[in-house]
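Action item from last meeting closed. Structure (462 res):
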């Protein structure tokens, strides 16, 4: 299947089956904003839960935090975001469309050969939606010389606190959750008796007024991030960086992403964020752009804590009991977007088998773990027994009921949303108190005793 076809199918499935809806759709939408539907919110919650389990619950030295989205504007001056959280913006002199310079360059470079071939009579190049948006002008293709020189554009959304809209009330929607962690560093050290190295983890919304949006959930203006700030001794930072690189790659693999679709990419010096001494991305092989960032891992050094110490006048150093010295720790930061995780997981899990679509999500990520059906909806005795099984299972697992259409269609509908198991109550169930349990991937059906339903499902789900 062509890669642009695949992403179209995924966008359509996401809408049709209640994973992702365009934001404010009835008013024509709003650029770069999506809403999670009933199944999308389950998938996102499951991703966040496995991240939290891996990062916080399974470690002795990581604690959680939930800081506010709105912060004192001094935070963003101190962190360097007001000055440095900028993208180079270019504008076409003919059609006045504006783009991120690096996005335009990446797409143009990738398609340059095709344009040359096309202008020499080699047919029209096939472009993805994003490529059409960025590369095509009203009368041809955007050439590098068509643009005005780059101007720096700050990505933070401005807002005001209180009724008066002047400079003194101005602040920003946070573009990263990390600053909430840095400003609470002293509070956590004082209250949790944490010892270096230790981490503070946070999941929350970030907002960026991206110049060029697109590729569905890949680049949006409001998104959730899963961030860990891992504080460590400066001399240990490089080793911890390597440690977290491996940990994060192992985590993505544990979610079921294919190894061949993941790789690391080290940032060149001119690509790194203003706070980072080293950055390595975990990249995914996206169908719409080939390799691109799924998660960023950065060595932020002591930059943020030092800046906040300096600008707030509060000492954010840490007294190291081991060396009896006061130090400002270094920070290693793995930071991943929930939306990009969802998108990569759906793409990787998407399979077609004839006209059957199967979302081969790992059971722990699937929105529903089990579906319960009566074989026939017009047989009250089957419906009654199936309903009693459903009522019981839904207290223990995310469970869905379906009695519409024929049984084959119901199986297919569950396959498409990734439900790993379907339980069907049939006529034999009435006689011997067994039901069939069907496996999404193999389509094999086994009979289990109704009384063993919970233990059987627990075993299968693990
Ligand atoms: N605190 C570090 C930080 O913000 P980042 O690489 O800019 O790092 C972290 O963002 C992650 O957030 C990315 O790896 C990506 O998964 C996600 N992300 C960033 N910008 C995004 C956007 N505009 N739309 C969707 N996800 C985004």
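Sequence:
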């Amino acid at each position: 299947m062509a890669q642009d076809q695949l992403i179209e199918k995924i966008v359509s499935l996401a809408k049709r089956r209640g994973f992702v809806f365009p934001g404010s759709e009835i008013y024509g939408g709003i650029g770069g904003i999506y809403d999670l539907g009933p199944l999308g919110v389950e998938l996102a919650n499951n991703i966040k839960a496995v991240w939290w389990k891996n990062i916080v619950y399974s470690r002795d030295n990581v604690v959680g935090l939930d800081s506010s989205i709105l912060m004192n504007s001094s935070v963003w001056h101190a962190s360097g975001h007001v000055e440095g959280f900028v993208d180079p913006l270019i504008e076409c002199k003919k059609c006045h469309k504006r783009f991120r310079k690096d996005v335009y360059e990446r797409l143009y470079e990738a398609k340059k050969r095709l344009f040359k071939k096309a202008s020499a009579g080699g047919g029209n190049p096939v472009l993805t939606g994003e490529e059409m948006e960025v590369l095509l002008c009203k009368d041809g293709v955007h050439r590098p010389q068509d643009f005005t020189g780059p101007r720096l554009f700050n990505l933070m959304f401005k807002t005001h606190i209180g009724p008066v809209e002047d400079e003194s009330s101005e602040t920003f929607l946070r573009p990263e959750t990390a600053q909430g962690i840095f400003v609470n560093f002293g509070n956590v050290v004082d209250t949790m008796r944490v010892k270096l190295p230790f981490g503070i983890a946070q999941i929350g919304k970030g907002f960026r007024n991206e110049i060029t949006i697109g590729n569905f959930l890949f680049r949006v203006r409001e998104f959730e991030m899963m961030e860990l700030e891992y504080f460590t001794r400066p001399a240990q930072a490089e080793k911890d960086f390597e440690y977290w690189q491996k940990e994060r790659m192992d985590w993505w693999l544990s979610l079921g992403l294919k190894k061949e679709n993941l790789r690391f990419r080290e940032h060149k010096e001119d690509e790194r964020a203003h706070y980072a001494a080293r950055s390595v991305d975990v990249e995914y092989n996206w169908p719409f752009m080939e390799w691109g960032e799924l998660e960023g891992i950065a060595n932020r050094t002591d930059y943020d804590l030092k800046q906040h110490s300096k600008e707030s006048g509060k000492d954010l150093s840490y007294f190291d009991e081991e060396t009896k010295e006061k130090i400002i720790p270094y920070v290693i930061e793995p930071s991943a977007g929930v939306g990009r995780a969802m998108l990569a997981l759906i793409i990787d899990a998407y399979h077609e088998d004839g006209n059957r679509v199967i979302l081969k999500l790992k059971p722990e990520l699937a929105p529903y773990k089990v579906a319960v059906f009566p074989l026939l909806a017009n047989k009250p005795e089957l419906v009654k027994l199936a309903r009693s099984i459903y009522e019981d299972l839904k207290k223990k697992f995310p469970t869905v009921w379906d009695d519409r259409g024929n049984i084959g269609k119901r199986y297919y509908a569950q396959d498409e949303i990734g439900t790993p198991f379907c339980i069907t109550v049939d006529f034999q169930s009435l006689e011997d108190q067994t039901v069939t349990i069907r496996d999404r991937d193999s389509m094999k059906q086994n009979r289990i005793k109704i009384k063993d339903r919970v233990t059987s499902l627990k075993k299968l789900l693990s």
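Note appended to the action item: The CA atoms of residues 61 and 198 lie 5 Å apart.
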